[in-house]
Amino acid sequence: MKELVEYIAKSLVEDPTQVSVVETEEGDHIRIELTVAKEDMGRIIGKGGRVANSIRTLLRVAAAREGKRASLDVIEP
């Protein structure tokens, strides 16, 4: 899961070195925290949150394949 979010985020931002992904697992729930540079927050969130919601959808599908649940939190720098 972590690799998927990291790949998508690095593809969207202008400064891929500032992308940080932290994955914590509690039972069957996976929580992913994504941090990017302040200048790239708009690219990750998107207009009306569409990009962030799309990433969350892809994450949920990947987690469901493994029989788990996943959530994505975008952390402000």
Explain how this protein is built.
With 77 residues, this protein is of the alpha+beta class. The protein has one domain: GMP Synthetase, Chain A, domain 3. It is 42% helix and 27% strand. The protein has three helices and three strands. The protein has helices spanning 2-12, 41-45, 50-65; strands at 20-26, 29-35, 69-75. It has a three-stranded mixed sheet with strand order 1-2-3, covered by helices on one side. Strand 1 (20-26) and strand 2 (29-35) form a beta hairpin. The longest helix is centred in the last third of the chain and has 16 residues, at 50-65. The chain is globular. It starts with a helix and ends with a strand.
Which sequence of strands runs across the widest sheet?
Answer: 1-2-3
* CATH architectural label: 2-Layer Sandwich
Mean pLDDT: 95
Gross geometry: globular
Number of domains: 1
Largest sheet: 3 strands, mixed
Provide the CATH topology: GMP Synthetase, Chain A, domain 3
Summarize the structure.
The chain is an alpha+beta fold and 77 residues long. The chain has helices spanning 2-12, 41-45, 50-65, and strands at residues 20-26, 29-35, 69-75.
What are the main properties of this structure?
3-stranded mixed β-sheet, 77 residues, alpha+beta, 3 helices, GMP Synthetase, Chain A, domain 3, globular
